[in-house]
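Changelog excerpt

This revision adds worked examples to the README so contributors can see how folded entries look when concatenated. The first example is reproduced verbatim below.
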Amino acid sequence: MYKKILCVLIAFVFSVSTVSAGTVYFNGIPVGSGVDYIERDGYVYLPLRKLADLFGGELGWDDKSKTVTIYNPMSSKKEILAEVTVGSKTATIYPIGGGDPYETEMEAPPIIVDSRTFLPYDFILESIGFSGELDKKTGDIRLKGSM
C-alpha cells in the first residue's frame, strides 16, 4: 500500500517540474525577473499573472467556470483580448479594434499549480504576436515584437 502511494507521489513530482525563475527580456531590455515556468507532459507553461503584471495587463477570474479574461493593456477601456478556461484547449480571441471573436485551439490546456494559472508558452506568443526564445538552462525568456 505504501509503495503504491510513494509511486504516485514520485510520478506527480516528475510530471510537473518548476524551473528556477529567470528574467524576461522584451526586445533585448530586461522587463522583469522571477518568472518561473513549468514543464508538464512535454509542454512549457508560463505564469499568466506575472506576465500580465510585467506588461501592465489586467486579468479577470471566474471561479465557478475557472475562466480567465485577459484585458488589453494598451486600451483605455476594458477591452477583452482573450478568454481561456483551465482544462480546456479552446480559447476565445477578441480582435483588437473590433471584429467578431473567434475560437482557437491551444496545443495544451491552461493549468493551475500552487493557486496560479499557467498558460502554454506557444499560445502566449501566438496570441500577442510576439516571437520568443526560452533558455531552459537559465530560465530566461526573450520576447520580440511591438506593442
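The second example, added in the same revision:
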Amino acid sequence: MLRGRTVDVVGEYAWALWLAGPVVATALAATWVWWRGRPARVPRPKKAMAEHKAYLDALRRTAVGPFTEGRAISLESLGTLGHSAAALGHLLPVETALDDIPALALTDTEANRLRCGQSVGLLRRQDLERIGHLESGSLICAKAGGKPVALARFEGGDLRPVRILNL
C-alpha cells in the first residue's frame, strides 16, 4: 500500500519537477555569472577618490555659453576689489546671459502686468505677428523699452511670468 502511494505522489508531482528544472538551472547560471563578474576587491570610497584625484584636478571648464575663461576674474582679485567702483567694470549686462533666449517686445501696460506677476493675453489680432514664431511652452525674455522685464513662458496664448527682473 505504501509503495503504491509513493508512486502516485511522484507521478502527480512529476510535472512540477519537470517545470522546475529549467528554473533551477537558470538560477544557478545567473548566480555563476554574478560570481564571476563581481570585482575581485571592492574599493573603498576614499581610496577610489584618491586614485581619481589627478583626473578630477585636470578637469577645467573653459566656457559656459558666452562667458569664457578669458573674461573671468579670480576669487582673490574679486576679494581685493570688494564693493568698490572698480568691481563694476568687470560686470557684464544682464542681456549677455539672456542672449540665447528669444525676446519679445511688450507695451508698457503689458510690462506692468508682468511686473505684478500677472499673465498677459496675446491672442488679439494685432499680437499675432509678434507671437507667430513662438511655440507653446517656450521660454522668452520679455522686454519693454529695450530693457528686460521678466523671463516668461508662452502657454495657451498667454505670457506667464517665471522670473521678474527688477533692473
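Reviewer comment on example two: The mean pLDDT is 75. Residues 67 and 92 are 10 Å apart (CA to CA).
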